[in-house]
Amino acid sequence: MRPRIVDLTHPLGPAIPMFPGLPGPEIEAFLGREATAERYAPGVSFVVHRYRLIGNSGTYLDAPYHRYEDGLDLASLPLDHTADLPGVMVDVADQVEAGRLAIGPERFVDLDLAGCAVLVRTGWDARWGTPDYLATNPYLTGEAADALVAAGAVLVGIDSWNVDDVADLTRPVHSRLLARGIPIVENLRGLDRLPRRGFRFHAAPLPIPGGSSVPVRAYAIVVER
Fold first, then answer.
1. Are residue 108 and residue 166 in the same domain, yes or no?
2. Are residues 112 and 81 in the same domain?
3. Burial level of 107, CB count in 10 A (0-12/13-18/19+)?
4. Where are the beta strands (DSSP E) in 13-125?
């Protein structure tokens, strides 16, 4: 057996798709190599960058505090809710290709999801970097969220720009999952490279006290036989 690491994260940069109205990330050299060269031995220099970004940028994780004032923030969210989780990939790209964007509870029936990170593949990540990515998105229904809670899912991820129908301002999926302490990872990519089972999922956030959402380096470790 040998492990295979699968990167599930979009690169983070100024031109990435953002939720409408939110600014893209900015990166600047706070201290450049020329300036730092004056501080070190000859031939030694560093660059020190400053990053400005909205927490909901790129491939990112929502902690319960994103939705609820008394919910767990990024610092208090247990690592065992975000790292080294047994993964289940649920492939719904067939219905999305057919124009059915609402993903209901029937896609999760009879699946053993207890203690798992459930990653929903819609195929939407193929549109990343194009205007179509921010078109009306594939999403989970509130009933699907209820099914995931009842099945014991520990984390839910999707390769679309929102796990909810963005036209539904009640945000039922965020509300129901985060109320139960289930973090959400959005804007995943490459879920087609995963098996349905047999992988471990990692998306640990920075432990920011009072933090609600933050980009993560999401990846899976697949054990191939």
1. yes
2. yes
3. middle
4. 26-31, 48-52, 60-62, 85-91, 102-103, 117-121
- Determine the pLDDT at residue 34: 95
Enclosing domain of residue 98: 2-11+55-224
Same domain, residue pair 165 and 59: yes
Residues 117 and 193 in one domain: yes
Q: What is the DSSP letter of 188?
A: B
pTM of the model: 0.96
**Which residues in the chain come in under a pLDDT of 70?**
225
| DSSP label of 16 | S
Q: What tens digit of pLDDT does each residue of 179-190 get?
A: 999 999 999 999
Quick check: 61 and 213 in contact, CB under 8 A?
A: yes
Q: Kindly report, residue by residue over 57-79, the tens digit of the pLDDT.
A: 999 999 999 999 999 999 999 99
Rounded Cα gap, residues 15 and 218, in angstroms: 20
